[in-house]
Amino acid sequence: MSHVVTVISKTSQLPSNSIDEISKFIDTKLNLRIVSVKILSPKKAIDFLIDLHGEDDSVEKHSCHCKEDQIKINEIMKANPFDDFDLIFQKNNAARKEKKLFVFDMDSTLIKQEVIEMIAAYADVEDEVAKITTSAMNGEIDFKESLKRRVGLLKGIESKNLWDELKLKIEITPGAKELYTLLMN
After folding, report:
1. Per the residue annotation, which of 83, 105, 127, 164 is the catalytic one?
2. Model pLDDT, residue 90
3. pLDDT tens-place string over residues 72-84
4. Which of 23, 77, 101, 105 measures 20 to 30 Å from 143, CA to CA?
5. Whole-model pTM?
6. How far apart are CA 4 and CA 7, in angstroms?
7. CA 82 – CA 20 distance, rounded (Å)
8. Which helix H or strand E contains 101, and what residues bound it?
9. If DSSP codes are grouped into helix, strand and coil, which group holds residue 132?
10. How many angstroms separate the CA atoms of 66 and 58, rounded?
11. Which residue has the higher pLDDT, 92 or 112?
12. How far is the C-alpha of 52 from the C-alpha of 59, rounded, in Å?
């Protein structure tokens, strides 16, 4: 079974020599043969298709070592020597390629803003909501209680035009569009 090492930039782009650097790491440190390289997003993400067992991939020869090999490789990968990008080692199978659902915390992840704070500003209770949020972040109250209190402050606001006004202010986080493209491939 083939595997893949996926490289994702932690910064705005991968360094210009990153393909050579990563190829050397895969060859010398992981002792793996690269079959092919696929650019997933220019200067942001790359897949290195790996042959885990060399050209002779017979089940008899490698079945007893496959799990140990993967554990060893994962340990090396955790000690990622690169500051500018993350490395992910995984089987190159249908489960990796055919994901059906991705779940994200939208606020401050895929969009720059916190929507509840935007609604609070619209309802003129932004300071009160911010205090509750700070209390939750400091561990003084739990998330469920903080959400209940914040939503309680928003009760009764006119929502007819709320979305039309808020959507004009929402900014997509840098990289979110590229992430969407990668997930759809």
Report:
1. 105
2. 84
3. 777 777 777 787 8
4. 101
5. 0.53
6. 10
7. 13
8. none
9. helix
10. 11
11. 112
12. 12
> Which residue is associated with the tokens 């300071």?
127
Task: Give me 66's structure tokens.
Answer: 């496959």
Give 123-128 contacts, CB < 8 A, sequence gap 24+: 123/153, 123/154, 123/157, 125/153, 125/154, 128/153
Beta carbons of 57 and 64 less than 8 angstroms apart: no
Q: Rounded distance, CA 24 to CA 13, Å? A: 19
DSSP 3-state of 157? coil
105 is catalytic: yes
Q: Of 158, 123, 145, which is closest to residue 115 (Cα–Cα)?
A: 123
Structure tokens at 131: 């205090």
Task: State residue 156 phi and psi, 5-degree precision.
Answer: 90, 0
List helix spans (H) across the chain.
Answer: 18-28, 59-62, 66-78, 94-97, 115-122, 126-137, 143-154, 162-166, 176-184
Of the residues 47, 51, 69, 107, only one is catalytic, namely 107
Pairing between β-strand 45-51 and β-strand 3-9 as defined by DSSP bridges:
antiparallel
| Nearest alpha carbon to residue 19 among 2, 1, 55, 44 | 44
Distance of CA 6 to the CA centre of its chain: 12
Helices (H) and strands (E) in the chain, counts: 9, 4
